[in-house]
Amino acid sequence: MFKNMTNLLFLTITILSVMIVLNSNNWISMWMGLEMNLMAFIPLISKSNNHLMAESNMMYFLMQSMGSLILLITVMSNNMLMMINITVNNYLNMILLMSLAIKLGMPPFHFWFPEMMSKMNWYKCYILMTWQKVAPMTIMSMIYMEKLMLLLILMSVMVGAIGGLNQTSMRKIMAYSSINHSGWMMSCMYMHNNSWLLYMVLYSIMLLPIITWMTMYNMYMLNQMKIMTNTIMDKLNMSVMFMSLGGLPPFMGFFPKWMVIQYMIDLKMYHILLIMVMFSLLTLFYYMRMISPLLMINFTINKWLIKFNSPKLMSTIMFMVNMSMPLLMYINLY
């Protein structure tokens, strides 16, 4: 009972700290919200008393503390310099953007992110991939540096696509997928609008059933995919969810990417868009590598490995949600 109450307390603080950042009108209160978020999330993920969890806690604490420290020093420097010129201001904005990239686990500061993901359970990974990114991204959307943002976008899309190709750990694959999606979200910020929030919401909705499925079947490695999914409906659901996450039409995951593509075409950013779409195809390749054994191999499994606890309602909801893309297109057209 006490353990559950402490978990609830830390989860509440994690949610409220992000709300503080979203509603702040000065840098210090934003920094305070980020620090509260860090201090609440560490006890939340350190429930298991094993060395892997302790390692991931320390990794998260060091990287987030370094990002927060750089952010605070930059903000204080900006206040102390009375007569500030444009060049100094640009440098300070650049450092500020880099500190937020460290906190988000965006390239070239991404090395801690997949490593930390590989040491946690799926639901904690889900919080790290979605909710923990909201606060730094909100602050990032207030800073505009054209060339540096373009560099971060391209690096995120490239590293997220290439990094996941050689992985066998499902959690590391999902971490690199998250880095790739972060690049797409950042491209929304580059275009001066808050559509990255819509992208984040849709990404979170698409990711939740996958995480639930992985937790239910206790999947952590790539070779477990063909062992654990046994019914045709399981295979179909898994395939639809991963293709949706890869942004393949007519599934729901194509909608946020289509939105970004439309914005970038309007701004005539064809070269950047081409690079982003091509690397998005690479992410789709490693999703297809996960689901191809399910679709192509009709194998036999031992009876004691079969689980009959597949939730029918959840399967139906997931299938309907991911197939809702044609409906969204219809609403958009009329």
From TrEMBL:
Its main location: mitochondrion. GO terms for biological process: mitochondrial electron transport, NADH to ubiquinone. The keyword Glycosyltransferase does not apply. This is NADH-ubiquinone oxidoreductase chain 2. InterPro entries: Complex_I_Subunit_2, NADH_UbQ_OxRdtase_chain2, ND/Mrp_TM. Its EC number is 7.1.1.2. It is a multi-pass membrane protein. It catalyses: a ubiquinone + NADH + 5 H(+)(in) = a ubiquinol + NAD(+) + 4 H(+)(out). The gene is ND2. Belongs to the complex I subunit 2 family. It is an enzyme of class 7 (translocase). One of its GO terms (cellular component) is mitochondrial inner membrane.
